[in-house]
Each structure stands twice: as C-alpha cells, then as structure tokens.
Amino acid sequence: MPHELPPLPYDYNALEPHIDEATMRLHHGKHHLAYVNGLNNAENKLAEARQKSDFVLVKHWERELAFHGAGHFLHCIFWENMSPKGGGKPSGELLKAIEQKFGTFESFMAQFKAAGAAVEGSGWVILAKNWMADALEILTAEKHQDLSQWVTAPILACDVWEHAYYLKYQNNRQAYIEAFTNVINWQDVEKRFGKEPSCCK
Fold first, then answer.
1. Alpha-carbon separation of residue 196 from 50, 70, 81, 130, 175 (angstroms)
2. Tens digits of per-residue pLDDT, 108-152?
3. Within 10 A of 92 (CB to CB), how many other CB atoms are there?
4. Which of 70, 95, 110 is closest to 187 using CA atoms?
5. Per-residue DSSP letters for 62-75?
C-alpha cells in the first residue's frame, strides 16, 4: 500500500496567530507531500531492485528511504502534536515522568526550546520515550534521520526546518519555537507516552 498524505486534524488557519495559514498550507500540502512521494518512490525502487537482484544503487535508495520516511512519519506526529486548544502543560503520568527526568516542567521546556534552537541546519527537536531505559529524552534529529536513538519513540516533535516558520518568523527560530509551545496538544503527547510500541513487547 502506498503511503498517503494524512489530512490535518484542524483547518489550515486554526493555529493562528501562532502558526500562520500560509505556512501551514505550504508545509502540509507541498513539503510533507514531497516526503510522501519520495518515500513511495524509494520503496518502489527497492522493490524493483529485489525483483531484478540488482543492488548497485541500494545505498542511494536506502538513504532516500531513511530521509523521506523519517520526514513523513515525523510530520504525521507533528500535525497531531498541535491543536488550536493546545498549550499549557501535561498532566498525570506524563507530567510525573517529565518532572522525574528534568526536575520541573519549566526545566524541561527550557531544555526543549534550547535544543530546538541549537539544531545545526535543518531538523527536529523531539521528546522521546526510551523504552530500554524507561525514561524520557530530548533529542535532536538533523536532516530527519540523524542523531537519533534506535530504542526511542517520538512523542512530541517540533519541526525546525525553515519551511516550518520562515514565512512568519523569518530567521527567528527561537520565536517560532516559543509560538509552537502555545499549540502543543498535550493530550496527544500523553496518548503517545502511554502507548507501548509493538517492537518492545
């Protein structure tokens, strides 16, 4: 089954004034769609290579698979991580886990924002659950697939590629990250925090 661009769970203008409609339309309808198309193409090319037993370009298509696949799946999380009614702070077990790892919610947010602002070039800042250590981690992923940990599952992802903020915030990534915190859908993050991936069962 080919991968498809998922619809947004809200209107393109629903995150105003924090995330503007023009950026959302370009980000979702152009950039995310390009990752979906790239992922499908890479999977098709690898399937052809297997059929022909011709793996001369396997390194290239595996890189394409990693890049576009990471872009697609992180964006799927990113859209649901935001809500017009977002912001504030989480509750329950997620808040306890944040406080256990980072001391306070405010300390977590300070590190999350600093990590996102410090990503070199383009990429993501991610709150991930480490299933081996049963703990939360703040990770950065440059170019989607770099600087990750294999035993983690992203539960909160903030896109810090320039296409996510440049129309409204220009080169002020820090202001964009601050705005992002006002639309975080903590209910979605809490759901992801409590969901154990099948690979860890």
1. 32, 20, 18, 11, 33
2. 999 999 999 999 888 999 999 998 888 999 999 887 766 555 668
3. 11
4. 95
5. HHHHHHHHHHHHHH
CB-based contacts of 135-139 (< 8 A; 24+ apart in sequence): 135/97, 135/100, 135/101, 136/97, 136/98, 136/101, 136/102, 137/101, 138/108, 138/111, 138/112, 139/115
Note if the pTM is more than 0.85: yes
All residue ranges of the chain with pLDDT < 70 are 145-151, 196-201
* Sheet with strand 135-142: strands edge to edge: 135-142, 123-130, 152-159
Q: How would you class 54 by CB atoms within 10 Å of its CB: exposed for 0-12, middle for 13-18, buried for 19 or more?
A: exposed
Q: Which residues are within 8 A (CB) of 117 and not within 5 positions of it... i.e. 6 or more apart?
A: 160, 173, 174, 177
DSSP 124: E
Nearest to 67 by CA among 96, 34, 91: 34
Q: Which amino acid is at 181?
A: T
Angle between helices 58-80 and 33-52 (to 10 degrees): 150
CA 107 distance to own-chain centroid: 21
E strands of the chain, at which residues? 123-130, 135-142, 152-159
